[in-house]
Amino acid sequence: MRVEVAVDAVDAAFATTTKQYQKQAVLPGFRPGKAPPHLVVRKYDKDITDDVKRKLLNESYHKAIEEQKLDVVGTPDIEEIQFGRGQPLQFAATLETAPDFQLPEYKGLPVKRAVKSVTAEDVERALTMLREQKVKFETVARVANPGDIAVVNYAGKCDGKALTEIAPTATGLTEQKNFWVEIKSDSFIPGFADQLQGAQAGDHRTVNVTFPADFAPKDLAGRLAAYEVEVVEVKEKILPALDAEFAKTLGAESVEDLRTGVRTDLENELKSKLRRDTDAQLIKELMGRVNFDLPETAVAQETRNVVYDLVQENAKRGVARDVIEKEKEAIYSAAASNAKDRVKHAFLMRRIAEQEDIKVGQEEVLRRVQTMAAMYQIPADKFLKDLDKRNGLVQIYDQLAHEKVMEFLEVNARIEEVAGA
To answer: Does residue 14 sit within a domain?
Structure first.
């Protein structure tokens, strides 16, 4: 797209900007704001020129895309700029527009929704988990039973070699002192803890295991290993009593209040899970009904976003930087595929919102900002300013719009209720 701004408009912009600088200019021999224009220009020429150029480029570009009714995606590449005092502004803008496609039928999308409810057993399991968070361990002079903790010293070998000779990074798997193992099948290496059942302090056992096929490090996957294990002591897990004292440690006045609160939390969690499952089905069905070309710049930008998120997630999980570097091609490939789906999904949501006149009001954005500020314990006005600086309000607007479109799709979906798993 080529754009030209007439010389008269350019000169007028220079004159207006020069006056603005003149009002604030402080030059020797003149009172503030009283310096003559030619001296202001002499001192601030570069700043004035940069301001005029930026202002005219922005205004003329947006005017041009409005006149041509272009739906632009991403940031344009501005080039071939001709600009200066006493001459017209001319430039070329290379841009991508949103894809033009026919919306598929999006009302009556089929969804299977599980019929589930929170049971008394669910509540009791949750209460047990809460008690386990405050568990105590007491050393006992007896054999280890399921659910106990065996504190052990161990050294492992594979084909007579220390595991680190086969997998150099497996130092923790090779040898440990005072290592805690819960007596249950999936504790530590599968099958390891089962062979310690019935052992007591002072016992020595040879424990044979087979590393799972998907084990990490990969050098050990599927291999047999033998561990020489010394049981140092056996500890029994002591759960706190489910009584009023325990309830108060969790902010409840009584066991019944705690049980009611747990049930409410589980019900909210179930609703969220069912909603996520419904949304996933709606998106999959909608995405499968239409194909269209995606703007390369949008996909590239979203790919960078996904790569960043994946790298950050791996770093938080403790994955070493060199491991991430080795897997960068696989990470990029997965990110590119994910990015295409996200970009396609975003365009579909936007078009449905336009078609159904689904909008987000300013007061809705502010309510969400206040909710988020309270959650992060940050003053609302400060949180709002921080969001504004990094264009975060646009993201909140998009998030709310997406939620509204998904609600619309769900209300208009063809839902079949099925027995819950």
So the answer is: yes
Overall size of the chain counted in residues: 421
pLDDT in tens, 336-371: 889 999 999 999 999 999 999 999 999 999 999 999
Q: Output the 3-class SS for the chain.
A: CEEEECHHHHHHHHHHHHHHHHHHCCCCCCCCCCCCHHHHHHHHHHHHHHHHHHHHHHHHHHHHHHHCCCCEEEEEEEEEEECCCCCCEEEEEEEEECCCCCCCCCCCCEEEEEECCCCHHHHHHHHHHHHHCCCEEEEECCCCCCCCEEEEEEEEEECCEEHHHHCCCCHHHHEEEEEEEECCCCCCCCCCHHHHCCCCCCCEEEEEEECCCCCCCHHHCCCEEEEEEEEEEEEEEECCCCCHHHHHHCCCCCHHHHHHHHHHHHHHHHHHHHHHHHHHHHHHHHHCCCCCCCCHHHHHHHHHHHHHHHHHHHHHCCCCHHHHHHCHHHHHHHHHHHHHHHHHHHHHHHHHHHHCCCCCCHHHHHHHHHHHHHHHCCCHHHHHHHHHHCCHHHHHHHHHHHHHHHHHHHHCCEEEEEECC
- The boundaries of the domain holding residue 201 are 136-238
DSSP 193: G
What are the pLDDT digits (tens) for 122-173? 999 999 999 999 999 999 999 999 999 999 999 999 999 999 999 998 889 9
* Separation of CA 201 from chain center: 46
Q: What share of the chain is helix, strand, coil (3-state, %, to 5)?
A: 50, 20, 30
Q: What is the CATH number of the domain that holds 280?
A: 1.10.3120.10
> Residue 194: which CATH number?
3.10.50.40
